[in-house]
Amino acid sequence: MLIRTGRWASLGADAAKVRYQVFVVEQNVPVSIERDVHDGECVHVVAYDEHGRAIGTGRLLPDGHIGRMAVLPTWRGKGVGSKMLQALVAAARQQNYAEVVLSSQVHARAFYERHGFVAEGLPYEEAGIEHILMRQVFR
């Protein structure tokens, strides 16, 4: 597995394929919600398998929010999400952010907790899916 970090101009086509498959096809999120104007200003990560196929993606917004974390179903539970999240947190630290924040789907809460994120507040609905706000403060 290879994790690449970069801008939308270089990683966008691969990131979009994974996001479309996971969010639009699998989770029934409308394309109009999944795609937004922020991609061009984000740091993106894309995970690739040994054949160079995109298998996961995520992004870091300039305000320190991590989002659009997605891993293709056949690759879940194999460390892809962990490696991508580590790369995004490293990018935030490199940019001297004080913290990172994300909106976790409730079913993925334990995954983020294992990586040092702490849940805040009550669950809420976003794109028809229950989420919870999570934060990791850098010390």
Instruction: State the major sheet.
Output: 7 strands, mixed
**Rg estimate, integer Å:** 14 Å
CATH homologous superfamily grouping of the domain at 2-97: Gcn5-related N-acetyltransferase (GNAT)
3D shape: globular
Helix content: 25-40%
On the 0 to 100 scale, the average pLDDT is: 96
Order of helices and strands: EHHEEEHEHEE
Question: Strands across the major sheet, in which order?
Answer: 1-2-3-4-5-7-6
The CATH topology label of the domain at 2-97 is: Aminopeptidase
DSSP strand (E) fraction?
Answer: 35-45%
What's the level 1 CATH class of the domain at 2-97?
Answer: Alpha Beta
Q: What is the strand tally?
A: 7
Total number of helices: 4
CATH architecture assignment name of the domain at 2-97: 3-Layer(aba) Sandwich
What class would the helix/strand composition place it in?
Answer: alpha+beta
Question: Roughly how many Å apart are the termini?
Answer: 30 Å
Poorly predicted segments: none
Features:
globular, single chain, 36% strand, 4 helices, alpha+beta, seven-stranded mixed beta sheet, Aminopeptidase, 139 residues
How does this structure look, described?
The chain has 139 residues and is of the alpha+beta class. Helices cover 32% and strands 36% of the residues. The protein is built from 4 helices and 7 strands. The chain has a 7-stranded mixed sheet with strand order 1-2-3-4-5-7-6, sandwiched between helices. Strand 3 and strand 4 (65-71) form a beta hairpin. The longest helix has 19 residues, at 8-26. It starts with a strand and ends with a strand.
Task: Compile the SSE list and pairings.
Blueprint: E1 2-6, H1 8-26, H2 31-34, E2 43-48, E3 54-60, E4 65-71, H3 80-94, E5 99-105, H4 109-114, E6 118-126, E7 129-137
Parallel strand pairs: 4-5
Antiparallel strand pairs: 1-2, 2-3, 3-4, 5-7, 6-7
